[in-house]
Amino acid sequence: MERNLISHHAHADHPIAAPVSEGHLERLLTRAKLPARARILDLGCGEAAWLVRALSLYPDATADGVDLSDTGFAGAAEEAGRRGVSDRLRLHHTPAAAFTGGEPYDLVLCVGATHAFGGLMPTLDAVRGHLRPSSGLALVGEGFWERPPSPEQLARFGAEPGEYADLAGTVARAENAGFATVYGHTSTPDEWDEYEWSWTGTLTRWALDHPGPDGEAALAAAREHRDLWLGGYRGFLGFVTLLLRQS
């Protein structure tokens, strides 16, 4: 079963696809204070939950979503139609690192998708290339170490010691890349638990409802993810979403 399809089923009850609540998602987008007729880009948009909500908040904005997920785009189109923003949303089936948008954007998002560029710093470099000079904003969601993990935990998580910094170090990395932090949200333990229980539980339910090879693969993925979370990064890995402006 393809990883994109597993992710699609796992996020069915939590389409934000990050440990961020609905309220905090809208607060982050509202604090962007976008200008009239803003252009918005999401690199690694999945089902475009962030873009659909942004278009609802900014009724004269337009948005481009970039991803490789056909199933995610189907969900994005359905939700955009339900919210009445389909005419202002364009979806591009292409690697995030290969996308060229032509005109600059007022807001560029990459939340929980920095792996598409190889980490936070390459992501910030890529984002800068899409931003409107001076006034453009970036909304970037990234992991950080709540407390230093042991070598055993790093090995289980498949991470390198310097792959993430602590929270202060993560902000410093962004600012050293030429951005100023104008707002941010640090995901709470409750948001993390809601996200992870939803991810693993929703995928488990789908697997039990679909016996056969796909169901077995989905159930194995749910259990592997849950074990990695509960026995690995829970309490060690945090998540921060930073609203950044070029400095």
Would you kindly provide a written description of the structure presented here, covering whatever features stand out?
Pfam families: Methyltransf_12. One of its GO terms (molecular function) is methyltransferase activity. This is SAM-dependent methyltransferase. It comes from Nonomuraea rubra. Keywords: Methyltransferase, Transferase. The protein has 247 residues and is α/β, with parallel strands linked by helices. The protein has one domain: Rossmann fold (3-Layer(aba) Sandwich), CATH 3.40.50. Helices cover 44% and strands 19% of the residues. The protein contains 9 helices and 7 strands, in the order ααβαβαββαβααβααβ. Strands 3-2-1-4-5-7-6 form a 7-stranded mixed beta sheet, sandwiched between helices. Strand 2, helix 4 and strand 3 form a beta-alpha-beta unit. Helix 1 crosses helix 8, helix 2 packs across helix 3 and helix 8 runs antiparallel to helix 9. The longest helix is centred in the C-terminal third of the chain and has 21 residues. It is globular and about 50 Å long. The relative contact order is 0.17. The mean pLDDT is 94.
* Element order: H for helix, E for strand: HHEHEHEEHEHHEHHE
Give the rounded overall mean pLDDT.
94
The total of helices stands at: 9
Show unreliable segments.
none
Helix fraction by DSSP (H/I, runs of at least 4): 40-55%
The count of strands amounts to 7
Name given to the CATH architecture: 3-Layer(aba) Sandwich
Beta strand %: 15-25%
Q: How many domains?
A: 1
Distinctive features:
single chain; SAM-dependent methyltransferase; CFA/CMAS; Rossmann fold; 7 strands; SAM-dependent_MTases_sf; methyltransferase activity; 19% strand; seven-stranded mixed β-sheet; alpha/beta; methyltransferase; 247 residues
